Amino acid sequence: NAGVTQTPKFQVLKTGQSMTLQCAQDMNHNSMYWYRQDPGMGLRLIYYSASEGTTDKGEVPNGYNVSRLNKREFSLRLESAAPSQTSVYFCASNQDRRAFFGQGTRLTVV
Amino acid sequence: DQQVKQNSPSLSVQEGRISILNCDYTNSMFDYFLWYKKYPAEGPTFLISISSIKDKNEDGRFTVFLNKSAKHLSLHIVPSQPGDSAVYFCAASGLNGGSNYKLTFGKGTLLTVNP
User: Fold this and answer.
1) If you write DSSP's letter for every residue of chain A in order, what string do you get?
2) Fewer CB in a 10 Å sphere around the end CB: N or C, chain A?
């Protein structure tokens, strides 16, 4: 049972490049989330999906788009990466009001 | 506006002593509270939670206390062990319109337990 799996684990992008962070969960959870963690800022919610087919903005959505491909998968896309998007990104799924997190993707934009 | 606040960025304690991590919240709609533990290069992992209908929840060495009138919760670790050294995040959950729940996190407290 893998839980929440994120790919890639590390990525370096040049300013203006695009990329998609992938997330999949095998726990049959309805809700999925994308957070970013920055030093001194804690975990901030970017986007979430309460169920398959729905997505909503979180606290810091600017510069990102998401796709809830099916119940298992929730991807995060950076269309034109900026240095301010250098961060560690965590995907999570939620069951009974408890979130389960992936291992994270460390993204550096140069 | 920060709805969940952990005002101590770091805490250092001796092995075997008690660690007390504090958290304050401002949103009265929060009705479920959680603590997560995070080691470097790993995702946060669930530690313990408490519903707003309770004032205490205990799980082994970990106890969470909730003071609703003060909008304050704390995590007690007794006795503290070096393996407890990690960043601890406080999180709060409440209805986000309709029937959706989402977690709001504090900035975290780095706990260091010295041997």
Assistant:
1) ---EEEE-SEEEE-TT--EEEEEEESS--SEEEEEEEETTTEEEEEEEESSTT--EE-SS-TTEEEEE-SSSBEEEEESS--GGG-EEEEEEEEETTEEEE---EEEEE-
2) N
Q: How far is B17 from chain A (nearest CA, A)?
A: 26
CB contact under 8 A, B105 and A94: no
C-alpha distance from B75 to closest chain A C-alpha (Å): 17
Cα dihedral sign, B2-B4-B7-B11:
negative
Residue from A69, A80, A78 nearest A105 by CA: A78
pLDDT at A69: 87
Smallest Cα–Cα separation from B19: which of B87, B102, B93?
B87
pLDDT (mean) for B69-94: 96
Tell me, yes or no, if B41 comes closer than 8 A to chain A by beta carbon: yes
Best-predicted range by mean pLDDT (A42-51, A75-84, B90-99): A75-84
